User: Fold this.
Amino acid sequence: MLRERVITGLLLVSAFLATLVFAPLTLQAILFALVATAGAWEWSNLVGVRSPATRALYMILVPGSCYLLWSQIDMTNGQPVATAQPWLAASAFLWSSMLVGLKYYPTGGWVWRQPWIRALMGWVMLTATWLSVMVCLLLSNGLLALFMLILIVVTADIGAYFVGRRFGQHALAEAISPGKTWEGFWGGVVCVIALTLVVWQNLPLSHLHLDLGSLLVLGLATAGASVVGDLTISLLKREVGAKDSGNLLPGHGGVLDRLDSICGAAPVYTLGLLLVGY
Assistant:
């Protein structure tokens, strides 16, 4: 299992970096839309759909929405910020509202048992993740900006894992994911603060007029949103009795098992970049 996990992880990282460095923008949009589409196939299982035809129909909604956004926002002109920002704000608000559902779960669990609500969530959240990534790539130093998103999410996750494993005693959301603790959460927060300080000291950010306070708020908001994304997918898997979202990635489970934190973090991060004047 460990060998499969390491090999799959290396392949995923290599494919991601190759896409960012060598693929033109249009091809990047297509490839990331395909990843979101694979996530939609798995999400249909979380909805409770079993018919392959119905799952395929649901899956097609995501790339279709990506194409419509690509056309309406006109990303080919390189200046999609003004038209994309309301979509990002709506998505960030949706993820923020998920905090209420997570806090009071399993109270109000009837909401999560409604297939149409779970279906709508998947469609909106996966499409919003694709949009966030594409807008991020179109910003100044877009490759670096997107890499920082991944780095923040990974740093928060690794910090939470090791601190939680060593010191964790108080469950963060016991009814959803018993293994996550408050100690782990704060460990991830401290690691993200340390990362932000390192970035501030070593990257030339002065020409972007970004102050340390803005970067700290952005990093912490992104880390918090990544936890919300993780817990949301865990909640939905618990509702349908699934351990993993799928089995497409050997040693890792499904696509959503790797995208859950990114889905929550990406809209908040990209919107935050725009709001702090990146």
